[in-house]
Amino acid sequence: MAEITRLDTTAVDFWERLEGLLAWESVSDERVTTTVREILHRVRREGDAALLEYTNRFDRMSATAMAELEIPRARLQAALAGLPADQREALEVSVARLKAYHARQKQESWSYREADGTLLGQQITALDRVGLYVPGGKAAYPSSVLMNAIPAKVAGVPELIMVVPTPDGEVNPLVLAAAELCEVDRVFALGGAQAVAALAYGTETVPRVDKIVGPGNIYVATAKGMVYGTVGIDMIAGPSEILVVCDGKTDPDWVAMDLFSQAEHDEDAQPILVTPDGEFLEAVAASVARLLPEMERKAIIEKSLGARAALVKVRDLDEAVTVANFIAPEHLELSVDDPEAMAGRIRHAGAIFMGRYTAEAVGDYCAGPNHVLPTSRTARFSSPLGVYDFQKRSSLIMCSPEGATTLGRIASVFARGEGLTAHARSAEYRIKS
Amino acid sequence: MAEITRLDTTAVDFWERLEGLLAWESVSDERVTTTVREILHRVRREGDAALLEYTNRFDRMSATAMAELEIPRARLQAALAGLPADQREALEVSVARLKAYHARQKQESWSYREADGTLLGQQITALDRVGLYVPGGKAAYPSSVLMNAIPAKVAGVPELIMVVPTPDGEVNPLVLAAAELCEVDRVFALGGAQAVAALAYGTETVPRVDKIVGPGNIYVATAKGMVYGTVGIDMIAGPSEILVVCDGKTDPDWVAMDLFSQAEHDEDAQPILVTPDGEFLEAVAASVARLLPEMERKAIIEKSLGARAALVKVRDLDEAVTVANFIAPEHLELSVDDPEAMAGRIRHAGAIFMGRYTAEAVGDYCAGPNHVLPTSRTARFSSPLGVYDFQKRSSLIMCSPEGATTLGRIASVFARGEGLTAHARSAEYRIKS
Fold it and tell me: Where are the alpha helices (DSSP H) in A116-235?
């Protein structure tokens, strides 16, 4: 295999090289944009008819009415009932753990009264209706259903509509079982830009939602970008990343496998190790070389390691923290003696996995926190998917007559300073003389 | 003036007509897009040199070095010291009230331990550096500085960089004074897409930020849309809106002036009255006709009223709530007897102004809540600007050895079900046999 890039913070061009390695811009393809724009336009104008036509064409289906593309509840229940015991238990434990964690994210309305009786506050409400996109085919992950559906349900969203493409009529029973466990309200066998259009604009059959979440291919991502504003969307994710900070005292095989666990997602995935221990760095490189041939997804892992991975030697663990904050990784493993102290110094990361016993993989499935995390250094300004993404706030203001007088005088000075005299007079009407 | 549109919920085409009136799509202009793309590209590649050139050209300046375009602290202090007493007091009271309200939005980190010692939690951090865009010229509002700067400062953002264009060298002393009161860290005399580019990519002089907030013209909005992902941005706002729900017992002049206070912002602004009282509706129309000729911004108000306003007659106040939730207005006035009870039934609104004494205008300046609010029905899925927009979250997971065993077994079942064997093995390494 190609050598993994080695970087050393003592090199004069270190930061420049690191930044170059991290650079990621999704390719904007004129052809994709044009196709998606047309699909959105037609589904918006023609509704079910266009939706049926696109679905039959792209997913090689032969549906004659939209009713055939709704997957009935009974089929979800049957999928759940048909699962092997260990898979059902894994799903159930994970659902329970995710619910418990996410319940702590729920925000409540608040208000307070000032001395003159004026009330100020913030009212929290859940979104009315949310659309959940689940990819079909090889990337059909039941964990993705859990991670997107549970925060919406915990937020109190009354209606959750799932779309999942079923190319050639093939469905993944684990995905349907997960939908049943998460109490998804309706499921449609739809995918691609046409599914996004149906959710954003509504059709005769598919109800219009207020926000669309969930991962998808470039057509789905482009469509989500285009309907943003008409509906809310979650982030549009880049390739997955892991940064392992290690003091050199963890089994190098463990660290190598942790790097693999990101690399196996995608040829563009980015696994990085940062350590002050040069010998350990070489030991991990040796583990990588020894373990790689055993891996089922060897070809993908090898490409990711060759193109986007790095083994970074730092002066000390303080510098490792500096590098981690610069990278702002999606997943950050702190495989060190006192991970809690180190975590307190991390300013930017999607999720922090503390200690030698915390494999990133448990966070993907069942630890409790969400696996939808900010990628491509966006952890500098964004957060994991959470209950807060399915709640919104309305400011509350109720002036007492006295408050209207006090505040009206101030508002009047501002408004006249800004040349907005209707604002001024509207406030002045309420001033008691 | 043109008649204001009158709608009645008993008409068969009511909802269709209402939806038509609300429809708003910002025009995407090929010429603007091309211009902005070039400006972003050049500032990114050439830094200060391009920034100087564009600023001299677009703002008719003759700066020879970037240092001339930084507005020094002493000038902000002088602007504050030079304000008339009433303006200074208005600013100071407003800053104090905004800080008190926004302090309640601040989120804190949390964590909990499970029985086996596994720790789960969420760590909250402020963004490192934020850029605040303030428009120059006629739309130079000091209140805009307050509303964008204060939540960032309350969140704990260490560095706040403001940009404000100074066409022909002209600055608004109220804007500089507001920046001083809000403890803005640095101010540059820059505007347009070039200012957005400088903040997003950084130049030799302007530091790169993590998020850009604040209103601007179509060039600024387009530039913000294009740099989104490289940095965070706030929402891109549409025209301002007010919805007044009134039971007919408020002075019709007050309601007319409240409608004017939105209309005077912009010819595209949307003021709507909803009332079950037909006589009151006509009384408000009469007040509008009588008061309009007195208004300084009459021409703008008239266009807004003619094109986008509506007087809506509903069957009763229950139906008024239904209409309000359909519209999801930016500003909602509940000018009724029991506004608290009605507010509890509002699911979608940027800000709710309760009671006859609460003019929307006090919320624009000094009540405490933010005046940056979701427009164009996006209150269905988004919130006022707040402290939470300047904080972000990192998930925390620390498995005890026992937790690693329990969770590792579940993760392994999931991962093998999804065909991700590196995930499975990474978790299995930590299972105690």
Answer: 142-155, 173-181, 192-201, 218-227
**Binding residue per annotation — A102?**
no
- Chain B from 12 to 51: CB within 8 A of any A CB: none
Rounded to whole angstroms, the Cα distance separating B76 from B82 reads 10
- The whole-number average pLDDT for the span A335-345 is 98
- What amino acid is encoded at B416 in this protein? R
Q: Where are the alpha helices (DSSP H) in B59-121?
A: 73-81, 85-103
Distance CA B347, CA B327 (A): 11
Of residues A366, A382, A423, nearest to B407 (C-beta): A366
A404·B373 Cβ contact <8 A: no
All structural domains of chain A, each given as residue ranges with its CATH number in brackets, are 30-233 (3.40.50.1980), 238-380 (3.40.50.1980), 399-428 (no CATH)
pTM: 0.96
Compute, in degrees rounded to 10, the torsion defined by CA atoms B428, B430, B431, B433: 110
Contact B408 A363 (CB under 8 A): no
Residue B395's closest CA among A177, A217, A388?
A: A388
Considering chain A, what percentage of its residues have pLDDT values greater than 90? 92
List the catalytic residues of B. 330-331
The letter for the amino acid at B284 is V
pLDDT in tens, A5-40: 999 999 999 999 999 999 987 666 889 999 999 999
Residue B308 near residue B268, CB atoms below 8 Å = yes
Q: At what angle do helices A401-417 and B142-155 cross, to 10 degrees?
A: 120
DSSP string, B224-284: HHHHBTTBEE-----S-EEEEEE-S-S-HHHHHHHHHHHHTT-TT-EEEEEES-HHHHHHH
What is the nearest CA distance from A312 to chain B, expressed in angstroms? 21
Residue A138 has pLDDT above 90, yes or no: no
At residue A347, the pLDDT reads: 98
Pick the residue with more confidence: B211 or B25?
B211
Confidence label for B337 from pLDDT (cuts 50, 70 and 90) = very high
ipTM of the complex: 0.96
Tokens 């306003």 sit at which residue? B309
How many Cβ atoms are within 10 Å of A430's Cβ, its own excluded?
23
B365:A414 CB<8 A: yes
Q: Is A217 labeled as ligand-binding?
A: yes
The answer to whether the Cβ–Cβ distance between B397 and A343 falls below 8 Å is: no
In chain A the first and final C-alpha atoms are separated, in Å, by 84
CA A22 from chain center: how many Å? Answer: 19
What pLDDT, in 10s, does the model give residues B223-281? 999 999 899 999 888 899 999 999 999 999 999 999 999 999 999 999 999 999 999 99
Q: How far apart are CA A257 and CA A305, in angstroms?
A: 12
Residue B96 confidence (pLDDT) above 70: yes
Are B8 and B313 in contact by the 8 Å Cβ rule? The answer is yes
Strand order in the sheet with B331-335: A110-113, A119-126, A391-398, B351-354, B331-335, B241-246, B270-275, B310-313, B5-8
Q: Which two three-digit tokens encode residue B55? A: 């600023």
Residue B44 corresponds to which amino acid?
Answer: R
Q: What is the pLDDT of residue A1?
A: 63
Query: DSSP secondary structure string, B345-402?
Result: T--S-SEEEESTT--HHHHHHTSSS-S----TTGGGT-----GGGGEEEEEEEE--HH
Cβ contacts below 8 Å, chain A against chain B, sum to: 361
Q: Any known ligand binding at A56?
A: no
> How far from chain centre, in Å, is Cα A216?
11
- Paired with B424 in beta bridges are none
| pLDDT (tens digit per residue) in B366-401 | 999 999 999 999 999 999 999 999 999 999 999 999
Strands of the B70-71 sheet, one edge to the other: B70-71, B186-188, B159-163, B129-133, B211-213, B232-233
Alpha helices per DSSP H over A47-191: 48-58, 73-81, 85-103, 142-155, 173-181
Which residues sit opposite A246 in a β-bridge?
A335
